[in-house]
Amino acid sequence: MTAGAIFFVVRMIRFNDYVTPATATTPEVRHPGFVALFEQTNKPLFFAMMAALLVPIGILSLRWWLLLRGHGFQAPFGRIFFVTYAGTFFNNFLPGAVGGDLTKAILAAHGEERKAAVAATVILDRVVGLAVMIVMGAVCLYPYVGRFEDKRLAWVVYGLLGAMIAGYLVYFSPPGRKLLGFLPFKKTVSELDTVFRSVRDKKGLMAAAAGLSLCSQALGILVIYGLARAMGIPGVGLWMFFVFEPVIFIVTAVAPSVGGWGVQESIYEVLFTGFGGIDRNQAIALSVLFKLSSILVSIPGGVLFALGATRRRAGAPPAP
User: Where do the domains of the chain lie?
Assistant: First the structure.
């Protein structure tokens, strides 16, 4: 499946330089192909940005660790970092972000009695990240809405914001609470609900998790902007990345694609070319470079998983 997705991406690429013929109103334009784009990439800046991708992983590990501790799981931070790092590795080869989250839930639940509650912290961790991403995208887009004649981007971003608020209100409404009582598997539902209710009941914990999400996502966006600068892509503004990347992260997280291949490149083309005016080949090249950087920096996570770094140590105290 991954090979098929990569084949689709390759079909989108122009490897050699090409020329857009002149028209009555525009001059002839020469566009660099993939080969030229990667040859001219600033290698020291590229490797610095790739290494910087480890920082958001560390912040996300801290976020999940706080959520676990807030619900009574006394896992050591080192193990949570290794589990998160392994989940990042598996994200590159499994559908969307679900594969990495499923990996994290399985690894973290090993040896725990409240397995549903552990899985719920993984879901809550993902929901907090998506919520902060949606809010950040909505806030960053607001000053630039007038720039776009095509309003579909605004509809998508503010539609997601409205859906998120509606979902919160429905879940905590009296009818929503009553509906939970009719669901089967009472014990599992109760463990899940106990964790999900912390969104309303543990505001300090949620504020800390949201703050860490904002830091991680902002750093991730700055890294992608640094990759664009390393490639020497003309016309890119920092504002584009804070407006477009939240949408890209959300789409690739929920889309049923293998590691985001194909979907990520398509959405980069739609946003950076259609709304940002960046050359199509350069937009796709930026997506591919970011994906390759993510894979390379996550390989040690797969190696650590294979070596058993994510396993629960014998003699670890049971969860209270």
Answer: 41-306
